[in-house]
Amino acid sequence: MVAGGLMKKNARFQVFNGVFFMMLLVGGWFYYPLGYFMIFCMVMAMGIGIVKGRWWCDWMCPRGSFWDRYLDIFSRRTKVPSFFRSSLFRLFWLGLLMSMLVVSLVPIWGDIYLMGRPFVMILTVTTVIGLVLGVIYNQRIWCMFCPMGTMANWLGKGRKSLKVSGACTDCGACEKVCRMQIYPGSYRVVGKVQHGDCLKCSYCVEKCPKSALNFEEDLKAA
What we know:
This protein is mainly α. The chain has 2 domains: 3-156, no CATH class; 162-215, 2-Layer Sandwich (Alpha-Beta Plaits), CATH 3.30.70.20. 51% of the residues lie in helices and 3% in strands. The protein has helices spanning 3-28, 37-52, 55-59, 62-69, 87-105, 117-136, 147-156, 173-177, 203-207, and strands at 162-164, 213-215. It has a two-stranded antiparallel ribbon. It is elongated, with a radius of gyration of 18 Å. The two termini are 13 Å apart. The mean pLDDT is 93.
C-alpha cells in the first residue's frame, strides 16, 4: 500500500481512536479500572517499539490520535524548544510519573477497583499538560517527552528506519509536515533517519516531491 493510502486509512482510524480516548478519560473517573488500559498501552508501546520503533505512537495510541485529529485544530504549530526532548527532561518526567504512581498505589494496594484511580489521575494530569503545551507549541509536544514514547525510543531506535536517497534536494518539504519536528533531509548523507522519535507515519514520504524517502520495509507487513 502506498504512503498516501496508508495515511488516509490512518486518518480515518484516528478520528474514532481519538473519540475512544476521550471516552476512556471521562469514563475513568466513573469507573476506575478503566485506568488499567494505560498498562496495556505501555506494554504495547514498548513491545512494538522493540520491532518497529515508535510505530505505536502514531498508528495506534489513542491519545496520539486525539492530539492529531482534535488538538491540532487549536495548535499554533510553532517550533518546540529543544529542552522538551532532551534526555534530562525526559528522565525527569519518567521519574516523576513513576514516583507519583508508586506513592499513590502503596496506600490502596490490594484494592483492585481503587488501584485504577492513580492511572486515571496521571492520565488526566498529563493530558491537561499536553493540551496546554499543545496549543502553545505543537499538538505532539507531549509525545516528545512522554515516558512511554521515551522508552519506545530507547528500545527501538534504528528499527524500520526511514531511508533518504540521493534524490533528496534538501528542499525542506519533509520537515514542514513532521509533527515531531524532525528533518529527514538532514540525514541524506548517511542515507537513513537515525532519530529515535520518528513515528513512522509516512507524512514526509507522501510529501517528498522527489520520492527520495521510503521505509526499509512495509511497516504494515512487519
